[in-house]
Amino acid sequence: MASASLSTQQADRRPHGIRPVVARMGGRDWGERALQQTWRSLGAIFFGIGVINAFLPVMPTTVFLLLGLWAYGKGDPRMRNRLLAHPRFGPTLRLWVERRQISRKGKLAAIGGIASGAAITAVMLGPRPLLWGVLGGLAALSLYLATRAEPTAA
Fold first, then answer.
1. How many angstroms separate the Cα of 100 from the Cα of each of 36, 71, 72, 150?
2. Confidence band (pLDDT; 50, 70, 90) for 27?
3. Cα–Cα distance between 44 and 26 in angstroms, integer?
4. pTM for this structure?
5. Taking the CA of residue 153 as centre, how many other CA atoms within 13 Å lie in the half-sphere pointing to its CB?
6. How far is CA 96 from CA 32, 41, 85, 99, in A?
7. Taking the alpha carbons of 108, 113, 117, 119 in that order, is the dihedral positive or negative?
8. Distance (Å, rounded) from C-alpha 60 to C-alpha 66?
9. Across residues 12-27, what is the average pLDDT?
10. What is the DSSP code string of the chain?
C-alpha cells in the first residue's frame, strides 16, 4: 500500500520537481500556471530589452532575444515560434538554436561592439584592477564568439 502511495506522489510531480496544488476552480494546477506566467514574463522582459536595443545600441540585441526565446520556450511555445519566424531576427535565432552557428557578419559585429564597449569602459574606469577583470571577461566572450562555427554556403 505504501508503494502505491509513493508511485502516485511521483506521478504527480512535474519535470521541474514541484508537486501540483490543484485549484478549486477549474481543477487546474495553479502552481503550473504561475510558473508558465513567470516564464512568459521573463520572455517579455528580455524580448522588450532586445527590441529597445535594436534602436538604441546600448546593449546587444541578439543576446536578449535569445534569452527571450529560451524563456518563451518554457512558458509560451507559440511566442517562441513567432520569434523564430520573424523576418528580421528569425534566421539568426534559428541558426543559433538549431545549429549553434553564428554568421561571420554577426561575429564581426558582436566582437566590434565588444571592442567598442571595452574601449569606453577603459576610458571611464582608468587603470584599476576592476578594469582588468572586465577586459578579461570581454576577451573571453570575444574568443568564445570567434570560435563558434559558421554556416556553410548552400
1. 26, 18, 18, 9
2. low
3. 27
4. 0.64
5. 0
6. 29, 23, 14, 6
7. positive
8. 11
9. 53
10. -HHHHHHHHHHT--TTSPPP-B-TTTT-BHHHHHHHHHHHHHHHHHHHHHHHHHHSTTS-HHHHHHHHHHHHHHH-HHHHHHHHT-TTTHHHHHHHHHH-B--HHHHHHHHHHHHHHHHHHHHHH-S-HHHHHHHHHHHHHHHHHHTSB-PPP-
* Grid cell 576592476 in the structure block, residue: 130
Measured on CA atoms in the order 72, 77, 80, 82, is the torsion positive or negative? negative
Residue 95 in contact with residue 60, Cβ under 8 Å?
no
Residue 144 has pLDDT above 80, yes or no: yes
Cell numbers that stand for 79 in this block: 511566442
Residue 12 pLDDT more than 80?
no
The cell numbers describing 150, all together, are: 559558421
25-34, 40-49, 54-63: segment of lowest average pLDDT: 25-34
